[in-house]
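Record NAD-dependent protein deacetylase, 237 aa.
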Amino acid sequence: MDSVSRLREMIEGSSNIVFFGGAGVSTESGIPDFRSTDGLYHQQYDYPPETILSHTFFMRNTEEFYRFYRNKMLVLNAQPNAAHQKLAQLEAEGKLKAVITQNIDGLHQKAGSREVLELHGSVHRNYCMKCHKFYDAEYMLESHGVPKCECGGTIKPDVVLYEEGLDNTTLSKAVRYISEADMLIIGGTSLVVYPAAGLVDYYQGDKLTVINKTVTPQDKYANLVVQGSIGEILGQI
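=>
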């Protein structure tokens, strides 16, 4: 039996699926990945992306942070692809219980997924650091220099920057969903960003599935490994 047929069979026999995904789920929607050959790490800026996207850099060089952020992180015309749509469909059918994502683009929700745990936050939520007033992503994209609130405070994206901790409520919900799942599908992630990548260790079942273009550290523990584009593969289910 080929790997896609096996994946289809495993999904059919499961009723408590959790999906854990990363940048590879969004690259097929035209959102640049950090680590792939044409990803953000290969762009031309005075600093590497992980420096720009750090808390220290945000506080010290806010204007340069926003120049990069508007240019590279706010891809607001991106549309969900076959992977996002299939996951939303599986949730609507009652099979998939949660999507746990490292992405910040909101495409899972745009496709119709309801239970989405955003480990690294979202570009669609932005808050004034002074009065906590909310601003959407469109406001950030259209602003110039350092976006300011009407109270005069600086607006910060609700995105987890390097040096910042993940939200504990989101983390504990993710642990609960993964530990209770009968099937865990890991997709579009190289599983090298911690603490997010460590969450998959909480899975206790025997249907651990990895769908990714490249090898991941979990492949040797997986019950099924499907190499390739996640949109293409889930689109065949």
